[in-house]
Amino acid sequence: MYAYTYCGKGDFRLLDKPRPVLRDSRDAIVRVTLSSICTSDLHIKHGSVPRAVPGITVGHEMVGIVEEVGSQVTAVAPGDRVTVNVETFCGECFFCRKGWVNNCTDPNGGWALGCRIDGGQAEYVRVPCADQGLDRIPQGVTDRQALFVGDILATGYWAAQISEIGEEDTVLVIGAGPTGICTLQCVLLQHPRQVIVCERERQRRELVGRLYPGVLTVGPEEAREFVRDHSSHGGADVVLEVAGGPSTFQLAWQCARPNAIVTVVALYDGPQTLPLPEMYGKNLVFKTGGVDGCNCAQTLELIARGKIDTTPLITHTYPLERIEEAYDLFEHRRDGVIKVAITPRSEK
């Protein structure tokens, strides 16, 4: 089968690999019907994810059809259309029981697919702990509607969930990339008084304005003054940092009012500095880290009810055999790209 493979820093290749097989009674084999490229894949490509294993098939955003299941799998069956969770979690360890599935202690726990074990930019993928990692797609929900449920939409939902957003709050979302827009949609579900999106690219600010009337947008240079002018207490009540740019972490705490919550879910290329003397007395609460992606069933239901729609994020579609072109487009942000969907390889 075709599989896009991490061969070393800066080196991704489309290789012919054997189709995966069941290795554990909790595994499932999924035929991938649609996948996508994530910024995290670019982090792997450029060597920013030390735990990534050379030789693995990349990709952790995918939907598909269950082909085969292990003897202990009960939640899904062959023929089911499913979303695949970015995280592997056993559901039984201390962290899973607390809902902190990102830190599952299973050997394949946490972000494994497309990082430490073979992922889904391929024709088939093996999914460990399938009872937790697969969710059936409701009838009437398309692959394109469900594509981001297991990763960037899970991130946005989790980020909004842990941010303690109230109806009187002014909420600032930093970043209007794919994860930022997913986060924005989930923030809007909480009905805050005002939402502001900070984004450096004018085209993406305009997209937010078209899709979400009432949401204010601003560039990073004007953000601090703009947020102060459009909030009641000298800054945003809640800030969600989703961009992961060179200066966005600093912007996040600077735009927050005293005693605000700053939620950081961005993945950075390098360390960030916490300037404690400068922020002393501001009494901020920071919430940081990787998504605990255990609410996919809920987000699928919201999609089925028309409460969430991430299909406008899919701006380009490529077949698997042209995935190198898709990566080049996505990495260099050409032609207004936001997300690229990868279809199965074309029949010759």
CATH class value of the largest domain: Alpha Beta
The CATH fourth-level homologous superfamily of the largest domain? Medium-chain alcohol dehydrogenases, catalytic domain
Give the proportion of residues in helices. Answer: 25-40%
Secondary-structure element series: EEEHEEEHEEHEHHEHEHEHEHEHEHEHE
Kindly report the CATH topology of the largest domain.
Answer: Quinone Oxidoreductase, Chain A, domain 1
Give the tally of β-strands.
17
Shape: globular
| Share of β-strand residues | 25-35%
Poorly predicted regions: none
**Average pLDDT score:** 95
Per CATH, the architecture of the largest domain is Alpha-Beta Complex
- Count up the domains: 2
Largest β sheet strand count, sense and barrel closure: 7 strands, mixed
Description:
- By secondary structure, this protein is of the alpha/beta class.
- The protein has two domains: 2-151 and 293-343, Medium-chain alcohol dehydrogenases, catalytic domain (Quinone Oxidoreductase, Chain A, domain 1), CATH 3.90.180.10; 154-288, NAD(P)-binding Rossmann-like Domain (Rossmann fold), CATH 3.40.50.
- The protein has helices at residues 39-45, 94-97, 130-133, 143-146, 152-162, 178-188, 202-211, 223-229, 248-255, 276-279, 296-304, 323-331, and strands at residues 2-8, 11-16, 28-36, 61-69, 81-84, 87-88, 110-111, 124-127, 134-136, 170-174, 194-198, 216-218, 236-241, 256-264, 285-288, 314-319, 339-343.
- β13, α9 and β14 (256-264) form a beta-alpha-beta unit.
- It is globular and about 55 Å long.
- The mean pLDDT is 95.
